[in-house]
Amino acid sequence: MARRLPFLLLLAAWPLFLALQQGDDFDESEHCHVAWMIGRMHEQPMRDFFQHHQPLLWDLLKTYYLAGGDGPEVLYFGRALVVGCALLFALGAYLLARNWTRGQTGAASPGWFGVVLGVAPVLLMSLALRQSLVIRPETIGLPFVALALACWTYPTRARWATLVRGFLAGVLFGAALYASPRFAVLAGAFLLLPADRRQLFSLEIGPLAVAVAGAVLFVFGYHFLMGGRVADLWFNVEFSSITYKTAAAAVRPPIRLLVFTGELILVAGWVFLRLDGLGRRRFLVQAVYLLLTTAAALSSAWPLLYPQNFIAPVILMSVMFACAAGRMETVRMPARRSWAPRWALVVAGVGLLLMLHDVVVRESIVARVQHKHDMLALLRPGERVLLAAAFHPICALDATYYINPIVDDDDHWGKAVAVAQRRHWALPDCDYLGDVLAQKPVLVDDYLIRAMPEADRARYRAVLDREYTEATPFSSSHHCYRRTVNP
Description:
The protein folds into 2 domains: 5-360, no CATH class; 381-483, no CATH class. Helix content is 60%, strand content 3%. The protein has helices at 5-20, 25-39, 56-61, 63-66, 74-101, 111-128, 137-152, 159-179, 205-225, 230-245, 255-273, 277-301, 311-325, 340-360, 365-376, 412-422, 432-439, 447-451, 454-467, and strands at 384-386, 397-398, 443-445, 468-470, 480-483. Helix 6 runs antiparallel to helix 13 and helix 7 packs antiparallel against helix 8. The longest helix is centred in the N-terminal third of the chain and has 28 residues, at 74-101. It is globular and about 80 Å long.
């Protein structure tokens, strides 16, 4: 029990960190606001407002409002989903490690160490890139990938049982793809986890065919049952690509990304040195595929580097570690002399300190919910806003079809929408100045300046000076303006 304690503490500290940390102000508020519009206002994406993400996350979030919930406390509900996904991913990593060791000569039960080793890459990512494991579509798909591969590796002998587990694995992987198409690059993992553990990879035609059928059945079956169209699926993928390719931002990897990459390389090297011959060969083959998925993730996102772009390669590394856990030799490095328990305690401590820092400096999820209540207090029922998502009160009407501006590059939404229009998508112009002049929102902010073309900015500032006054400042970096001239 004493040897398990550090790993148990780590797995207990991780959900607490995910539940309370600051997270991603922009994306989490955006998705919760979409859930409010769907669940409470009964609006639909692309008909009443613009969105280009897959709807599985919104279908889960909107249950908060359909069940009678109200207010920006939906952020708490969303974080509960994040914690649930993290725990299900840990379960999937454990099942994958256990299933993979079955049938391997000399492989030992992975135990608690195997769980933590399989979770380690995703866990470290959530600490180093704190906007990665948050209320986003990729988080919802995370456990589906792990459970799909756990189902795929479940040992079966009967032909019908092999086809059934292949079909179930395909359905689960289809759910991951429907949550986020980013996970498509992980499809090759099915080839690298053959039923015959002595092979490094294999092409199992029958199980793979039914897995593909299961994935297609889930994606299109669920989409049509929820009232979606085939065009919506393609548009979501294409417009996401457009938003990356219309950015002009230079690639500047944050120091946290470099530290995180170094950590994973060190852990991977430690795992490799503790494997035997077959385990090392398998690890190297999987590492080659890891490099390919990383290259695909980076090239598809270029020139921007969002934290969620790295989630697919990190999941693949978790799969590699989970499969290696049962074959790692313990003779050369006895558990009592291993650094693993010590590092588990260190990582748990770092997570708790980061979470406490956010609570103390009022940047936790609790402070964000209170901030949104303060914003709502500036509004009367029916009044509209045009605010960046990070400062949007969630339960408020919008003064624009495009909801909130993307401010990682000047006029980013406008340029992306223009490209989509040239590709024959029937989208209205993205005109934030026109929205301000026509809809006269009660609350606006200075984020709109960067979201507009340079030609509109002077006129927008003139409107602010003439019709708005700065509201109570909520942060030094954000200036909110309340309309003082009656329409």
